[in-house]
Amino acid sequence: MVKLLFVCLGNICRSPAAENIMRLLVDQAGLSDQIFCDSAGTSNYHVGSPPDDRMVEAARQRGMEFVGTARQIEYRDLQEFDLILAMDRQNYRHILRLDPHGTHHHKVRMMCDFCQTHLDTEVPDPYYDGEAGFYYVLDLLSDACAGLLQFVQKAYLQKHSQS
User: Fold this and answer.
1) Could you give the 3-state DSSP secondary structure of residue 41?
2) Angle 60-72-23 (CA atoms, 0-180°, nearest 5)?
3) Is the pLDDT of residue 159 over 80?
4) What are the catalytic residues?
5) Where are the domains of the chain?
6) Contact 120/155 with Cβ under 8 angstroms?
7) How many helices (H) does the chain have, and how many strands (E)?
8) Collapsing DSSP states into helix, strand and coil, what is residue 14?
9) CATH top-level class for 2-162?
10) Can you list the pairs that 43-46 forms with residues at least 24 positions away whose Cβ atoms lie under 8 Å?
11) 73: DSSP letter
12) Which CA distances in Å does 144 have to 10, 28, 43, 68, 97?
């Protein structure tokens, strides 16, 4: 089982969107028994909260249902997950600080590293951007998740099936 953790600041907009989009793609690919998705935030601002209503509505308009409960990332996540995907550089640095010895740094990647068509290097936080920001983030994350799924299939699933 390949375990993916998506991380943003509060775990109510970007990371739950990435988790839910990726879960949908994994389900469509018939890989739910091989890929596990979760999300967390670097802050504790929204622990226990569901995804932001505006993100849920934007997703609903695109035919997706978003679920989840916000939680804060912990060191044990670095141990348990195969890939930890940061939405922006600030969260990337925060994740690395959880691991001062660098034992798990190789697992931490930027989400936009997997974009196939978008040129963004970070997933912008739509929290203060208004409705259009949520739709843009969904487009960006859909692109990145599609690329991530291809990466996981090649780097993890094919490698393990050949062993």
Assistant:
1) strand
2) 35
3) no
4) 8, 14, 125
5) 2-162
6) no
7) 6, 4
8) helix
9) alpha beta
10) 43/9, 43/10, 43/72, 44/72, 45/9, 45/10, 46/10, 46/11, 46/12, 46/70
11) -
12) 20, 16, 23, 20, 24
Provide the greatest CA pair distance for the chain: 48
Q: Give SS3 for 111.
A: helix
User: CB-based contacts of 76: which residues, under 8 Å, 6+ apart?
Assistant: none
Closest CA to 25 of 113, 143, 159, 128: 143
Q: What is the pLDDT of residues 34-57, one digit of tens each?
A: 999 999 999 999 999 999 999 999
Query: Tokens at residue 77, please?
Result: 């996540």
0.85 exceeded by pTM = yes
Closest C-alpha to 31, from 144, 117, 141, 158 = 158
Instruction: Spell out where 9-88 has E strands.
Output: 35-41, 83-86
H/E segment holding residue 27: helix 14-28
Q: What is the pLDDT of residues 89-102, one digit of tens each?
A: 999 999 999 999 99
